[in-house]
Amino acid sequence: MAAPLADRLRPKTLEDMVGQRHLLAPGKVLRKIIESGEIPNLVFYGPSGVGKTTLATMIARQTNRKLFKLNGTTASTSDIRDVVSSLDTLETVNGILLYLDEIQYFNKKQQQTLLEFMENGQITLIASTTENPYFYVYNAILSRSTVFEFKPVEASEVEQAVERAFVFLEGERKETIVREQGVAAYIATACGGDVRKAMNAAELCVLSADRSDGICSVTLQQAKEVSQRSSMRYDKDGEEHYDILSAFQKSMRGSDSNAALHYLARLLEAGDLPSACRRLMVCACEDVGLAWPQILPIVKAAVDIALQVGLPEAQIPLADAVVLVANAPKSNTAYVGIKQAMHDIHLGKVGSIPRQLQNKHCDGADRDRNRKGQFYQYPHEFPNRWVKQQYLPDELKDTVYYEYGDNKNEQAFRLYWEKIKNGTNL
């Protein structure tokens, strides 16, 4: 069985690689490290198909080290021992480079097995992960390694790889491949920065193409069919999930309707209706809040409709609500207030509830005989339904959690209560 095209056409030099210019352009730190030949333990962090395995292979070749590849999803401790057993043989005279893909699936004991050999320099570890290594890789490994983040490859660079793939396939299959205009560009865009996926899509186009007189004709429609939805990088348990949710709320908070709709579409395309609804309601409360409190029942109604009708129709009420939230005036004063109040609670700043607020209607024997009575003053019995009395515990008296925002609603509240509390009858 033939290897995937991405493996058959794997770049041999740094100049052949596409993407990761922030790491591999002349003068960049990682490139200088590679060119020095003195390779430290490394952790490559980033999405799949962006060159992590390719670069590790290049490093092994350039430093004349024996390359071993393990995958954290299938490898065991015995596999590590097999690698170690190859030390001090003729084929490992320049040392071993162990490429450990998906290291986050290795447990603590498996990772600790590597430490002794990493420290004495007999094994150079290049680990890769699609998850944030600071959350998923043990500190003992991280403290002995340098982390480099790989990013999705720009579509313009992926397109170069796709064109190279078609040329390679022409030579390999000994046939002329005619591409309809826009095929390579569409594949490059649709595959979401994943070079491996883009190259495999190019091969699928060739395998499924019509042929006549030795000419293989690849159409734009074929490209769309083999690349459908492949631009979606989404794992409900992975970091991409939280990145999209974060971008979704920050776009609404930043009053950018276009970006908010974009991230909503990504969530819905992935079928994640619950997360979209939850984050939308949170944003309405946290970021619009008291600047326009009437938005809360409106957003709740839109979410109820969306959950009742389901996808794909759910996109309609959610789009309405997202645009509404993005364009609404913003205030996070209540959010800041409750956050500070919770902070004080966590610090133990609680205090006794003032006597006049307690749910008591009689006095115990411990009360001062000269000060019997709860002394609660019922605001509705006073002008403008307000009377000055202490509500916070003594330990927190005069603490301010809520500051009026500068929007129309909250400024109206401020003026209203300033007049009342200064003794002006309305």
Give a concise summary.
By secondary structure, the chain is of the alpha/beta class.
Characterize the structure shown.
The chain has 426 residues and is α/β, with parallel strands linked by helices. It is built from 19 helices and 8 strands. The chain has helices at residues 5-8, 21-24, 29-36, 52-62, 77-85, 108-119, 133-136, 139-142, 155-173, 183-190, 195-207, 220-226, 239-253, 257-269, 273-288, 295-309, 315-327, 333-346, 408-421, and strands at 42-45, 66-71, 96-101, 123-129, 146-149, 176-179, 210-212, 215-218. Strands 2-3-4-1-5 form a 5-stranded parallel β-sheet, with helices on both faces. It has a 3-stranded mixed β-sheet with strand order 6-8-7. The chain is flat, with a radius of gyration of 31 Å. The N and C termini lie far apart (86 Å). The model has no long low-confidence stretch (mean pLDDT 86).
Fold blueprint:
Elements: H1 5-8, H2 21-24, H3 29-36, E1 42-45, H4 52-62, E2 66-71, H5 77-85, E3 96-101, H6 108-119, E4 123-129, H7 133-136, H8 139-142, E5 146-149, H9 155-173, E6 176-179, H10 183-190, H11 195-207, E7 210-212, E8 215-218, H12 220-226, H13 239-253, H14 257-269, H15 273-288, H16 295-309, H17 315-327, H18 333-346, H19 408-421
Parallel strand pairs: 1-4, 1-5, 2-3, 3-4, 6-8
Antiparallel strand pairs: 7-8
Helix pairs in contact: 9-10, 9-11, 10-11, 13-14, 13-15, 14-17, 15-16, 15-17, 16-17
Order of helix and strand elements from N to C terminus: HHHEHEHEHEHHEHEHHEEHHHHHHHH
In terms of DSSP E residues, the strand content is 5-15%
Largest pleated sheet: 5 strands, parallel
Q: How many helices in DSSP terms?
A: 19
Helix content: 40-55%
Structural class estimated from helices and strands:
alpha/beta
Spatial order of the strands forming the largest sheet:
2-3-4-1-5
Q: How many β-strand runs?
A: 8
Q: What's the end-to-end separation, in Å?
A: 86 Å
Low-confidence stretches: none
